[in-house]
User: Fold this.
Amino acid sequence: MSVAQERATGPAALQRRGRFRPGDAVLYVVTCASALTGVVLLGLIIHEVLSQAWPAIEKFGLGFLTTQAWGDNGNTLFGARSFIFGTVVTSLGALLLATPISLAIALFLSELAPRWLRSVVAPLVELLAAIPSVVLGLWGILVLGPFITGTLGPAIHGSLGWVPIFSTEPTVGSNMFAAILILTIMIIPIVSSICRELFVGVPAELKDGALALGSTRWEVIRGVVFPYARAGIAAALILGLGRALGEAIAVTQVIGNRVAINTSLFDPGDTLASRIAGQYQGADTALQVASLVYLAVILLVFSLIANLAAQLIVRRVAGRHQV
Amino acid sequence: MSTNAPTADLFRSERMRRRRIVNRLVEGAATVAALLAVAVLVIVVSSVVRSGWGAINVDFFTKTPAIYTGFGPRPASGISSAIIGTLIIIGIALVMALPVGVMTAIYLNELAPRRLAGVLTLAFDVLNGIPAIVLGIFVFVFVVVGHGQAAWKASFALAILMVPMIARSTQEVLALVPASMREASLALGAAKWRTTLSVVLPQAVGGIVTGATLATARAAGETAPLLFTSALYSDSVSYDPRQPIASIPMFIFTSAEQADPVLHEQAWGAAAVLIGIILIASLIARWFADRSVRRLKGER
Amino acid sequence: MKAFVTRRKRPLAVLSVLTVAIATAVAISVGGAQARSSADELKGAGATFPAPLIAAWQQKYEAAKGVKISYNPIGSGGGISAITNKAVDFGASDAPMTPDQFNSCGGCVELPWALSATSVMYNLPGLPNNLHITGPILAGIYLGQIKKWDDAKIKAVNKGVDLPSLNITPVYRSDSSGTSFNYTTYLNTVSRQWKSQIGRGTTVNWPAGVGARGSSGVSGVISRTPGALGYADIAYALKNHLKFFSVQNRAKKFARPGLAGIQAAAQADRKFNPQSNELSIVNPPGSKRFARAYPICTYTYVILRIQSDKANLLKPFVTWALTSGQQYGRPLIFQPIPKYVVTRGKATLKKVHS
Assistant:
């Protein structure tokens, strides 16, 4: 053996390899610290937001959730009821509209479209996700709003005016309906891209088996793809819901900023995130600031629940399909 | 054997026809939905381009926003301060987020015990889902209250937004690096840290760039954190990150709700610039992603 | 083997170049920041009401004295909180600060520096400007009780005008607004129901209508919505070519929000609030002296910290604004403030030091 080989593989070298390397320790510490920032930040965020909201939590307690007021009694009474209502209605409404469209898009891009069309349409749908929310809000104010008051609203109100949610005539472009449409546009790319990956991941044998038994494409989808991807679709929808819950900027631009619970979607309203965005800059009393952060606490609870639910579903599905 | 010929009738039977009609309907509906999404995109982007085109000229990129009282000649104005501000804020955010994201991914993928990695990954995924407005409030309470707004504080908020995305993208590409490479390097006597930095990381650069540009594209369009950290800015061009500076999303946000049609046009123009930046970043990300995945999968 | 190594090194090279470039840019920016001082700049934030006048001041003052003024119109509440948080050198608000706010501010003074009117604007295509309206009708509209333009009450004060059967959309300020404070103070004086049910403030619980941010936001919604009605400084109505009402004052005359109407109303209060220097001139009495008075006028105030590093720039600026600056307000319908207000302002300004 040459001297070099002796040095590389002899007993001294073996001892060297087992020795502790300071570089390893540095790498370990530095990267571990980075990784811990996630948990640390999460804890910090929850702590800071809670402590800033504390004066309002102390003063109003859980009654805040059922009070419908904002700045009443000489700027001393605040309540979140109308905003919780607005958040729930706009997010669920957007989810309702976005679910069939997103699933259809995902099916189109994974099963039904020819390859050339797929490579054209897929990047375009992803591009929809890249449009910043403030630009969508700008479009909502200047294009969608007038469209709703001029064409879409009267058409819907005229034909479906007997339905409570369309019972008033949209006189102004800022209303809940506009917010729902904008949120739908935001949710669709997220849900459809996740669902598309899910559908692509369905094992070919299962689909082929169904086809061999004489199913039509739709029956394959309904009988094989959807059940297989069921949990993943649920997770995708919940993630989309989480996005809609937290959207502040585009919503505050188009929703009309009203503290009210109205049955008609053509009336203005407000959501938790939108009220925070609209009022935080100008909050001039400590109680108002604390109440706004209390809204943020409620919003945080909602989005944490939605997020954790989606993550747990994803992990459970990943574990199951690892076989 | 019966006199019926089931095979021929089976194809033309009533039930089969109905099933095929349903199939056609669903396929049609799916196509319509996809085209609807594309149509919405086309409508929004064409609105931006059509309405913003008039605002885009040399002044737009070289002059700062000017306040117009409504009387007298309108001064020439543009969004130069906003463009520079956005570049500075995003740049600092990237400098803050990239190392943290990459090192987090290294830890979670290479060094951490499995259980811990799962918990920490969950924490980052949850962090990813926190609404930007709540992040804005957090940063406001954490560093702005009592100390004033600053561009670097806006970058800090955006960095919190970017780290989970960069970490996840880096993790994915690190996982693609074959174990054999790591083992070979270790077998040759290299330390773990040497292996990671000189052997594994260079392989993952494509994925890191992808994640970084995607995160940048997302952060460039976020307005909510800016409301709390860099909203009280002056109209002149400023390079000082210790002061609040203008940014394109804030410009669009404040101009959109005004009544002045010229400001609307400038808002559309600014939106076009913003979408342009995001588009370029996404294209770069996509190109790097394709390249790195191709190399890691194809060559090995 | 050699090509394999070089090809692998390329993305790393790109990444390191990028990092170096970004780091350099950051270094330049931080370094450049040292060179470029903000010593000759005053930063302000607050009410949207005086924003048109402050815009004129920005141009004229920089031309005259070389000091740059920057102003962020984020609403009166925003101005109060910005000066409280020391985020700006001066704050502006149409609403006087409350004793609690003075406590939070920790050593601030407030003084009136401009005077104008809150116009009530409307969007009725084809109809003339300066239609008539009364306080009780406005209260009824904002309470959600009067819903259509051809309501009998509106018709009664606008004889001969063909009012359409259009829905009224009242627009209010969704942010913390001194103009809201002024407007709700007025509604308090003309409607007992409003006073007991809603009250006045920078933020109130508006029972009807749609919200918008800033005076510009209100103008924006009105200009886009036929049948809409809302309140903002008269300068916004003029700037955006919106029609505005002649409002009935206590002398039963329908007054326009012009310089004459504001000047008449300004005589209604000469007693300054000791802490905030507030002068409340809303809905002046019905005597002959106030026959031309427009009932929804307001002073707007500047808020300064008693101890400020920029005192040597602030004091000249505010003095200039109180004196030479007033003339630039005329075309924007800001009535020059009376002499006794200038005197009081200068006396208050003496308290500011560095």
Chain A has a mean pLDDT of 88. Chain A touches chain C through 34 residues (CB under 8 Å). Chain A is about 75% helix and 0% strand.
